[in-house]
Design a protein that fits this description.
Elements (H helix, E strand, L loop, with lengths): L18 H7 L3 E6 L13 H14 L4 E3 L22 H17 L4 E6 L6 H8 L6 E5 L2 H11 L13 H10 L21 H4 L18 H22 L8
Parallel strand pairs: 1-2, 1-3, 3-4
Helix pairs in contact: 2-6, 2-8, 3-4, 5-8, 6-8
Protein name: Creatininase family protein
Cofactor: Zn(2+)
InterPro entries: Creatininase-like_sf, Creatininase/forma_Hydrolase
C-alpha cells in the first residue's frame, strides 16, 4: 500500500532572521503568533489558527522594529477533542510557556511582547497579559474583539463574530487570500449556523455541529481575506502607539 502524501507545510510561518539581522534592527518589541492544532472541518487544515496568527503577525510587524517570533502551534483545543487530529495542551502549560518566553525576552533587552492569538479558546492568555503588570515585560493581546469587528466591517464580512465562530467566512477568507493552496474543495457547501451554544465549554463543539464548522464559509473570498488582514494591520497602530513602536523609515 502506498502511503498518503502529506501536504507541503505552508511557507512563511517561520521568521528568516539571523542573529545579526536582529542585532541590526535593535527591536524593543516582540510579536508572538499563537495558533492551535485542531479540526477546521473537512476543507481547512488542522494548522488553520496558526496560519492565520502568522499572517496577522507578519502584517503588523511589517515596517516596524520588532522581533517576529516563530508560532506556538499547539494550544487549548479541548472543545474540539471529538475530531481526529486535534491535539491540546493545558491552560497551565500555555501560561507557563508564554511566561517563560517573556522572561527570556526580558533578559535579552526586549520589554514588550504582543501575543497575536489565532484561537478563541486560548482564554488563559488574558490572564497572562493581566499578570504581566510589574513583571518587567509589558504585554498586549491582539486582535481584540473590537479589532475583529472593525476589520470585518471593512472587509464586508456578512456574518457576525458570534455566528462566524469556526472555519467560517472570516477564517476561510484569510486562507483563501494568504494560503489558497491549503483550502480544499467543499467550503462552498459547508455552512452550519449554531448560534445557541450556551453549554459549549461543558459539552464541546460536537454538541453543536457534526462537521466541525460553525459559520458560513460559503461567503468567503480572497478579497475579504485581504481586507481583513489590512484592517487588522490598521488596528494594530493603536497598540504600537501604546508601546512606542512606530514604523521604520524606508528609502
Amino acid at each position: 500500500m502506498t502511503a498518503s502524501r502529506h501536504p507541503t507545510p505552508a511557507p512563511g510561518l517561520w521568521p528568516a532572521d539571523t542573529t545579526e539581522d536582529v542585532r541590526a534592527r535593535q527591536p524593543t518589541m516582540a510579536v508572538l503568533p499563537i495558533g492551535s492544532f485542531e479540526q477546521h472541518g473537512a476543507f481547512l487544515p488542522l494548522t488553520t489558527d496558526t496560519v492565520i496568527a502568522c499572517a496577522i503577525a507578519r502584517e503588523v510587524s511589517a515596517g516596524r522594529p520588532v522581533q517576529l517570533l516563530p508560532p506556538l502551534t499547539v494550544s487549548c483545543s479541548q472543545e474540539h477533542a471529538a475530531w481526529p487530529g486535534t491535539v491540546s495542551i493545558s491552560a497551565r502549560t500555555l501560561h507557563a510557556v508564554v511566561t517563560d518566553i517573556a522572561d527570556s525576552l526580558r533578559r535579552s533587552g526586549i520589554r514588550t511582547l504582543i501575543l497575536v492569538n489565532g484561537h478563541g479558546g486560548n482564554y488563559v492568555l488574558r490572564n497572562v497579559v493581566q499578570e504581566s503588570a510589574g513583571s518587567g515585560v509589558r504585554m498586549a493581546l491582539f486582535p481584540g474583539s473590537a479589532d475583529w469587528d472593525a476589520a470585518r466591517t471593512r472587509a464586508g464580512v456578512q456574518t457576525s463574530g458570534h455566528t462566524d465562530m469556526h472555519a467560517g467566512e472570516a477564517e476561510t477568507s484569510i486562507l483563501l487570500y494568504a494560503h489558497p493552496e491549503l483550502v480544499k474543495e467543499g467550503y462552498e457547501s459547508a455552512d452550519c449556523v449554531a448560534d445557541d451554544r450556551k453549554h459549549l465549554l461543558t459539552l464541546g463543539m460536537s454538541a453543536y455541529t457534526e462537521s466541525g464548522v460553525v459559520g458560513r464559509p460559503s461567503l468567503a473570498s480572497a478579497r475579504k481575506g485581504k481586507e481583513l488582514l489590512a484592517g487588522l494591520a490598521e488596528a494594530f497602530d493603536e497598540y504600537a502607539a501604546l508601546f512606542g513602536a512606530g514604523t521604520e523609515a524606508h528609502d
